[in-house]
Amino acid sequence: MERINVNLGKRSYPIFIEHGILGNISKIVREYFSGRKILVITDSNVVDLYARQLAAGLENEGFQTFVEVVPAGEASKSLARAEDLYNAALDHRLDRKSAILALGGGVVGDLAGFIAATYMRGIGFIQVPTTLLAQVDSSVGGKVAVNLPRAKNIVGAFYQPKLVIIDPDTLLSLPEREFAEGLVEVIKYGIIRDEDFFRWLEQYIKNLRQNTADLVHAIKRSCEIKAAIVSEDEAECGLRMVLNFGHTVGHALEAVFGYGTLLHGEAVALGMVFEAKIALNRGLIDERTFLRIEGLVKSAVPKDLPHRPDPDSLIESMSFDKKNLNEKITFILPERLGRVGVYSDITAKEILQAIAP
Ligand SMILES: NC(=O)c1ccc[n+]([C@@H]2O[C@H](COP(=O)([O-])OP(=O)(O)OC[C@H]3O[C@@H](n4cnc5c(N)ncnc54)[C@H](O)[C@@H]3O)[C@@H](O)[C@H]2O)c1
Ligand SMILES: O=C(O)C(=O)C[C@@H](O)[C@H](O)[C@H](O)COP(=O)(O)O
Ligand SMILES: [Zn+2]
Questions:
Q1: Co-location of 20 and 74 in the same domain
Q2: Is 74 in the pocket of ligand 1 (CB under 6 A)?
Q3: How confident is the model over 11-51, as pLDDT tens digits?
Q4: Could you confirm whether 247 is annotated as catalytic?
Q5: Phi, psi values for residue 63, rounded to 5°
Q6: What range does the domain containing 275 cover?
Q7: Cα(first)–Cα(last) distance of the chain, in Å?
Q8: Is 92 marked active-site?
């Protein structure tokens, strides 16, 4: 079993990665959680695939388990859905010793984590991610949130799980489109932090899904990079912003086109290429570096914009980004492969030149 730690001062928590671990989860959960009640939050696709098996295992270990199902898709990351789940928690008489277990992709993880962070001012939280994106990114680091129609992840908290349990076997049932969007956040780690990993991906990304050892390597390396960054800067005071490369534009595209039109990873793929273009136009990176970034991203997600976005809506949406200070739109831009910087002086003209010329 692979184990990576997220170290946060006096607290730390493990990320376990192992094939088939889902069938054997209850003993590990018992080790990290002494309460009795667990509310499993999952979605309408994942429930029939994994929730029953998981709940049965937990019941065998003596946990009282409840399962709540939200509709699959980004629209479930809403205050309305959160209210339904608070009511379910009350119905089940969850108390401060109870835990929420997120079983699913990033939507379920962010929503369930938001409930865990706020119900009774915070109860136990366990992440069991079942998409590639959630295994390499959203289950680690404690960003939990719901969306408002105009702004992604705008109501949320930093709330860390007690543990993260990753079973790569769950990816066998993941549709191709959702697998591909997960690759985008994997590529992000190479661009922001690890040139060797980027080069490795250039060579192996095409067959990653088929080659289990390579897939586990990609998950592990991604978790290591994210864990190291979060361990240094949990609350995004500085360094953690690098994880937001591609997201100033990506989140704006998600909101402007309507949540769910583009998957998160697809929007971030476009965002990374557009933001790399801003960097190229500014002379921060050379043409060859831009083409390598564009080439690798497009090899994973060859998607284009559904249509040209309205420029004013796009800029307005970026004005809600959480990295902004003093109303300056903030970007994470590549300076070379493996290194990015924070820029708050990009003009609307530069932005639109790269995105919607
Ligand atoms: N908190 C963070 O740090 C962080 C990081 C990255 C992304 N996110 C958020 O994560 C969300 C995107 O996550 P996602 O891409 O996992 O989307 P998702 O949760 O919507 O899952 C994608 C689809 O895959 C289905 N699915 C999940 N697991 C499956 C499996 N094993 N087999 C078959 N189908 C399965 C889901 O039902 C859904 O239809 C966005 O809301 C994004 O903002 C958060
Ligand atoms: O963990 C982080 O920090 C990230 O920025 C990871 C991103 O991939 C993720 O999409 C995150 O939810 C974005 O956070 P936000 O603060 O920009 O909403
Ligand atoms: Zn992301």
A1: yes
A2: yes
A3: 999 999 999 999 999 999 999 999 999 999 999 999 999 99
A4: yes
A5: -80, 145
A6: 176-213+235-355
A7: 49
A8: no
